Amino acid sequence: MSENMSSLAPPTSTVAPPTLPSTWTPPLSTWETPSFTSAAQFRVGATLVLFVFAACSNLALLASVGRGRRPPSHLRPLMLSLVSADLMMTFVVMPLDAVWNVTVQWHGGDALCKVLCFLKLFAMYASAFILVVISLDRHHVILHPLNSIKAHKRNRQMLLVAWTLSILLATPQLFIFRAVRMEAADFTQCATHGSFSRRWQETVYNMFHFITLYVVPLLVMSCCYSRILLHIHLQHLREKGESYLRRSGTDIIPKARMKTLKMTVVIVLSFVVCWTPYYLLGIWYWFQPDMLRVTPEYVHHVLFVFGNLNTCCDPVIYGFYTPSFRADLAACFHQKRRNAARAPPNRARSRDVVN
Question: What is the CATH architecture of 38-239+255-330?
Answer without folding.
Answer: Up-down Bundle (1.20)
